[in-house]
Amino acid sequence: MISRFKLVFGALAILVPVIASNPAFAVNPDEMLSNPVLEERAREISKELRCLVCQNQSIDDSDAELARDLRVLVRERLVAGDDNEEVIDYIVARYGDYVLLNPPLKPETYILWASPAVLVVLALLAVFAFYRRKQREGSTASASLSKDEQERLDELLGTSNDDGKS
């Protein structure tokens, strides 16, 4: 009985994260275009645009109201006859390069591209500083003990610093 419970629990522990990691598409049926070709183009464009509220989701995956507005805007531009690039250019003109999930590399977006590397370097420096401080504290710990404290420590550890006595 216990092994069956462990098996079911183990299966759930594996399946739940896998199922939860798949994005639930947030496109509502009332947003979808009747033309399947245009709808497919709208979905492709929506996967390239960042939700400005959720920030790490595409507007295709986001349930935010702004993402819905952007999805509707994409579809309106496609129905008006814009090609994919024109739709993306129109939205970038209104919201800036930050709306792109993969922004172009140019002076205005250097911070977007450099920030992950800067954060990694800062984290490594923090870890290095932490271990340096720990190392210094460890080497000065015995020097900061008084003579009585050192003798008591030696007694507890069964060692001695004077004349080889133990």
Question: Please, could you describe this protein's structure?
Answer:
The model has no long low-confidence stretch (mean pLDDT 82). It contains 6 helices and no strands. It has 166 residues and is mainly alpha-helical. It has helices at residues 2-21, 36-48, 65-79, 84-95, 110-140, 147-157. Helices cover 61% and strands 0% of the residues.
What's the layout of helices and strands?
Elements: H1 2-21, H2 36-48, H3 65-79, H4 84-95, H5 110-140, H6 147-157
Key features of this structure:
166 residues, mainly alpha, 6 helices, elongated
Beta-strand percentage range: under 5%
State the secondary-structure class: mainly alpha
Radius of gyration: 30 Å
General shape: elongated
Low-confidence stretches: none
Ends apart, CA distance between termini: 58 Å
What is the ordering of alpha helices and beta strands?
HHHHHH
Residue-averaged pLDDT, rounded?
82
Strands, total number: 0
